[in-house]
Amino acid sequence: MVNKVLVRPAWVKPSIRALPMRTLRQARNVHSTAKETAKDNSIETTHFGSKTVAKSEKEKLVGSVFSNVASKYDIMNDVMSLGIHRLWKDHFINKLDAGKRPNAKEPLHFIDVAGGSGDIAFGLLDHAEHKFYDKESTMHVVDINPDMLKEGEKRAMNQGKYFNDPRVKFLVQNGETLDQIESNSKDVYTVSFGIRNFTNIQAGLNTAYRVLKPGGIFYCLEFSKVDNPLVDTVYQQWSKVLPVLGSVVANDYDSYQYLVESIQKFPEPERFQSMIEKAGFQSAGYEPLTFGVCAIHWGIKT
Amino acid sequence: MKLPPRILCRRLYHPNVVEHQVKHPLFPLTYGPHSLQYKVLENTLSKYVPLYGFDERAIVASANELGLGGAVISALGAHNSPSFFHTSPAVLELVKFHLVTKRYALTNALDPSRAPGGLSSIPDELPTLEALFKRRLELNVPIGSHLTPLLSMLSIPGEYLVNTALPELHRLSDDLVFFSQEKDSHDFAWYAKRAAISCAFVSSELFMAQDKSHNFNKTFEFAEEKLHKVTKLGEYYNNTEEYMWYTLLTSINLAKSQLTRG
């Protein structure tokens, strides 16, 4: 197998299908190895997971793995939510309706926490630009995982927008502390499908309150609890299928098993609302989407 | 599906007290008179809506004046959903604020729970329905020139119409009856009366939107006439009902007497 890869002619494009499917964790390990080996040009071959490949091919292969993982992520999101996650995100952005209005004095300062992939962050900026001709507002895309941030940067680069843009900054930060973000500095704090993964959700909410300016808004898109018992029965059955789908489509059973479990463990909307209020936010509320599969929560710092 | 006994034992036929607690003094608004939202919207409504109409520019101008950031507009609209036909969730909140605060302003002096002096400051005699109806229309005078877009926003079919515009109209007509001398009944006429007053109010507002007369004099004439017609219609209905009931009883008695005679 190793020899096959090594003797492949240069014109043969390394196909991802020729490689065994890997979990995201493995892929990330590979990425860090690639960076290390890139410094040392004297080595002709290098590691690619458990295999040895020609160095010249390495970058391409890593790139393929990442684009493969990213595209699988999108496909998996589509498969798991039957494409509805796009509607949720669109609704989230339209409902927030943020942007510097033409007669407003100051631009907005956004922070998108756990937003490594950048879809909400770029969506918010696009919305502001298309609707209000706002090209001044700034965005901090924050994620605890540097690899996810790289995904966002890559997406920005591919779309030719928001990459190397002084308005958009990518920062590796823990959402529970946000130690590089000043207090009272942000207007809009968004977190989409991320707060569920915080170790201490309350600490994350308290930090959100800290970084927001008075008059700022906390806006969160997260899985929730289905109200209708009939729909819930169907939903619970569907949840059992998700890890299987994960293993078939992305070759990753465990991650999707974790996803389902984390959704089940996340507090009910009323309780989460009271947690938002406990952090100090006023006028907290939530809007269930698609029978409560998902919900938009908000709170205002006054 | 196995349900835990806690859920099975829950009383579903009787709502409990907590469910009916009014959390906010300006229900259905989710903020009180001391909140940031109230401050911004009050300032917008009194100063900038007469200038710009029900528009985002009015809210932004107000926020600029109060020295607030641009996120306020998102914060205001958080409770509303965007829709294809509506401009912005924040404007919808402004419209809701207008409807709710004007309704409360109408009955502030008549409601013992809200009147500044409590029960003692309530007048001995409640105003007539017509007086209260006209007073509500008078509250629309400062924004008279912007009524057309307001009414069109309220009448667009959708979630906002069902969740805000219609319930608020119903609450208004309910208040108009409850806080006036108007006689109330406990049968289907309870609904009919409120529906009729709602219709009269909406048609008066529509008239007001097109009215160019001095101080909207013609609107008040129209409202008076409309309300009079509605009351008269109610009287016609009651008289007819009474006559039909009388005829029915007489016919039964007649039939009975004829049958007894054999």
UniProtKB/TrEMBL annotation, chain A:
<keyword id="KW-0489">Methyltransferase</keyword>
<dbReference type="GO" id="GO:0031314">
    <property type="term" value="C:extrinsic component of mitochondrial inner membrane"/>
</dbReference>
<dbReference type="InterPro" id="IPR023576">
    <property type="entry name" value="UbiE/COQ5_MeTrFase_CS"/>
</dbReference>
<dbReference type="InterPro" id="IPR029063">
    <property type="entry name" value="SAM-dependent_MTases_sf"/>
</dbReference>
<keyword id="KW-0472">Membrane</keyword>
<feature type="binding site">
    <location>
        <position position="192"/>
    </location>
    <ligand>
        <name>S-adenosyl-L-methionine</name>
    </ligand>
</feature>
<feature type="binding site">
    <location>
        <begin position="174"/>
        <end position="175"/>
    </location>
    <ligand>
        <name>S-adenosyl-L-methionine</name>
    </ligand>
</feature>
<comment type="subunit">
    <text>Component of a multi-subunit COQ enzyme complex, composed of at least COQ3, COQ4, COQ5, COQ6, COQ7 and COQ9.</text>
</comment>
<keyword id="KW-0999">Mitochondrion inner membrane</keyword>
<dbReference type="Pfam" id="PF01209">
    <property type="entry name" value="Ubie_methyltran"/>
</dbReference>
<keyword id="KW-0808">Transferase</keyword>
<keyword id="KW-0831">Ubiquinone biosynthesis</keyword>
<dbReference type="InterPro" id="IPR004033">
    <property type="entry name" value="UbiE/COQ5_MeTrFase"/>
</dbReference>
<dbReference type="GO" id="GO:0008425">
    <property type="term" value="F:2-methoxy-6-polyprenyl-1,4-benzoquinol methyltransferase activity"/>
</dbReference>
<feature type="binding site">
    <location>
        <position position="143"/>
    </location>
    <ligand>
        <name>S-adenosyl-L-methionine</name>
    </ligand>
</feature>
<keyword id="KW-0496">Mitochondrion</keyword>
<comment type="pathway">
    <text>Cofactor biosynthesis; ubiquinone biosynthesis.</text>
</comment>
<dbReference type="GO" id="GO:0009060">
    <property type="term" value="P:aerobic respiration"/>
</dbReference>
<comment type="similarity">
    <text>Belongs to the class I-like SAM-binding methyltransferase superfamily. MenG/UbiE family.</text>
</comment>
<dbReference type="GO" id="GO:0032259">
    <property type="term" value="P:methylation"/>
</dbReference>
<feature type="binding site">
    <location>
        <position position="117"/>
    </location>
    <ligand>
        <name>S-adenosyl-L-methionine</name>
    </ligand>
</feature>
<protein>
    <recommendedName>
        <fullName>2-methoxy-6-polyprenyl-1,4-benzoquinol methylase, mitochondrial</fullName>
        <ecNumber>2.1.1.201</ecNumber>
    </recommendedName>
</protein>
UniProtKB/TrEMBL annotation, chain B:
<dbReference type="GO" id="GO:0032991">
    <property type="term" value="C:protein-containing complex"/>
</dbReference>
<comment type="pathway">
    <text>Cofactor biosynthesis; ubiquinone biosynthesis.</text>
</comment>
<keyword id="KW-0831">Ubiquinone biosynthesis</keyword>
<keyword id="KW-0809">Transit peptide</keyword>
<dbReference type="InterPro" id="IPR012762">
    <property type="entry name" value="Ubiq_biosynth_COQ9"/>
</dbReference>
<comment type="similarity">
    <text>Belongs to the COQ9 family.</text>
</comment>
<dbReference type="InterPro" id="IPR013718">
    <property type="entry name" value="COQ9_C"/>
</dbReference>
<protein>
    <recommendedName>
        <fullName>Ubiquinone biosynthesis protein</fullName>
    </recommendedName>
</protein>
<dbReference type="GO" id="GO:0008289">
    <property type="term" value="F:lipid binding"/>
</dbReference>
<feature type="domain" description="COQ9 C-terminal">
    <location>
        <begin position="162"/>
        <end position="234"/>
    </location>
</feature>
<keyword id="KW-0496">Mitochondrion</keyword>
<comment type="function">
    <text>Membrane-associated protein that warps the membrane surface to access and bind aromatic isoprenes with high specificity, including ubiquinone (CoQ) isoprene intermediates and presents them directly to Coq7, therefore facilitating the Coq7-mediated hydroxylase step. Participates in the biosynthesis of coenzyme Q, also named ubiquinone, an essential lipid-soluble electron transporter for aerobic cellular respiration.</text>
</comment>
<dbReference type="GO" id="GO:0006744">
    <property type="term" value="P:ubiquinone biosynthetic process"/>
</dbReference>
<dbReference type="Pfam" id="PF08511">
    <property type="entry name" value="COQ9"/>
</dbReference>
<keyword id="KW-0446">Lipid-binding</keyword>
<dbReference type="GO" id="GO:0005743">
    <property type="term" value="C:mitochondrial inner membrane"/>
</dbReference>
